[in-house]
Amino acid sequence: FISDNIIEASFDGVHIGYYDYVNKKIVVPYEYDEVRKLENNYYAVKKNKSYALFDADKQTIILPFDVGATFIKETFKNRDTEQLFIVYQTVIDGVEKVNIYTQGQVLFDKKYAAKTVDYNPQLPFITGATNEDTHYVFDSNTKNMIMYGLPHIENSCRASYLDDKPEYIIIKAQIDPKVT
């Protein structure tokens, strides 16, 4: 059993999927090497060493295999727009990195692919660290990099708006005077 009335199943003994035996319907088709349940009826599915994200409600792949995901970490939604963001691992220039996929495209180019990514579901900000001393803040509403080159961001989940005005944010960080 995966959960409640969902079981892992296979027709050929090799490829697996998920089946709802109470409602008698296929939840995830029986064509994957590996299936892992995420939240909100999303499933990380693996085929030929790459991962995709399967939406069981729509019965469709929403993060395609050709993105080259080596692992799907999590999903989250922008609180204002309900836009879905898929956080996944991939290999870039021989190094394992984290990137985000949303609305049919990879969010960050190679420069901003990160070692770590963090977000606060109450705010539209995504923070990341491309290495030990280069951090950034990305606004998921405007799709703009609003700060880049910060040597350190302390607890990015505590970012907040200054005086409740969305054009100003407060985030505790170290500032490098050489970065403009």
Reconstruct the topology from this structure.
Layout: E1 6-9, E2 16-20, E3 25-32, E4 34-37, E5 42-47, E6 50-55, E7 60-63, E8 71-77, E9 84-92, E10 95-102, E11 105-106, E12 116-119, E13 125-131, E14 134-139, E15 144-150, E16 152-153, E17 160-162, E18 165-170, E19 173-174
Antiparallel strand pairs: 1-2, 2-3, 4-5, 5-6, 6-7, 8-9, 9-10, 10-11, 12-13, 13-14, 14-15, 16-19, 17-18
Q: Mind explaining what this structure looks like?
A:
This protein is an all-beta fold. 0% of the residues lie in helices and 56% in strands. The protein is built from no helices and 19 strands. A four-stranded antiparallel beta sheet has the order 4-5-6-7, with no helix packed on it. The radius of gyration is 19 Å and the shape is elongated. The chain starts with 5 loop residues before the first strand and ends in a 6-residue tail after the last strand. The model has no long low-confidence stretch (mean pLDDT 85).
